[in-house]
Amino acid sequence: MSQFFHIHPDNPQLRLIKQAVQIIQSGGIVALPTDCCYALVCQLDNKDAVERMRRIRGVDDKHHLTLLCSDLSEISEYAKIDNRQFRLLKSGTPGPYTFILGASKEVPRRLSHPSRKTIGLRVPESVVVQALLQELGQPLIGTTLILPGNGLPLTEAEEIRDQLEKQVELVIDSGACSLEPTTVIDLTADEPMLIRQGRGDVRLFGL
């Protein structure tokens, strides 16, 4: 049975944030609202949790998972970033964007794309997610909470608990959540490339 936390969206209760981090550090999967839609997240270095998360989503190892980072400096630890990419990242972080970048040696091989050695990274605006990242002290690995056969992400915490109570260790409810996922932009080529239009405004990147 999964646990269920009501966390204030603007003033997260530190006690609950600490409990959530303990669950993550113990190998748990958490369903949480971000600044876009709900996501599944787990600890970066926990292979079993990552594989369970993929099974819940019904995706294989070719599907990009995303590193949720606390800030730009943390992104630079996990991705190879040149000056041009840095300027683009700075204009869209924190925000509703996922950026595809070349993975650095810090990224476990199993989490980067098996043939292209790339990784998706983002800096969310969500106060709750930022509180978790600060308490954890490292990025979370995550994926949009879209279940197999569904075209849209789940948005209601109670519904998520009903459907996933035996597959995730924690569901966080911190109020209304968007249906829109992040906008995904590939920065590995000479010019930014739009992969998925979501909540973010692509004009920031000349698209």
Characterise the protein shown here:
The chain is of the alpha/beta class. It has 6 helices and 11 strands. Strands 1, 2, 3, 4, 5, 6, 7, 8, 9, 10 and 11 form an 11-stranded mixed β-sheet that branches. Helix 1 packs across helix 5.
Summarize the structure in short:
By secondary structure, the chain is of the alpha/beta class.
Characteristics of this structure?
single chain; alpha/beta; 207 residues; 6 helices; eleven-stranded mixed sheet
Radius of gyration: 16 Å
Structural shape:
globular
Low-confidence stretches: none
The proportion of residues in beta strands is: 15-25%
Task: Give the overall average pLDDT.
Answer: 91
Major sheet description: 11 strands, mixed
Question: What structural class is derived from the secondary structure elements?
Answer: alpha/beta
Q: What helical percentage do the residues reach?
A: 25-40%
Termini, distance in Å?
44 Å
Query: Based on DSSP secondary structure assignment, what is the total number of beta strands?
Result: 11
> What count of helical segments does DSSP give?
6
What's the SSE pattern? EHEEHEHEHEEHEHEEE
What topology does this entry show?
Layout: E1 3-6, H1 14-25, E2 30-33, E3 38-43, H2 47-57, E4 66-68, H3 72-78, E5 79-80, H4 83-92, E6 97-103, E7 118-122, H5 127-136, E8 140-144, H6 157-164, E9 170-173, E10 183-186, E11 193-196
Parallel strand pairs: 1-9, 2-9, 4-7, 6-10
Antiparallel strand pairs: 2-3, 3-8, 4-8, 5-6, 6-7, 10-11
Helix pairs in contact: 1-5
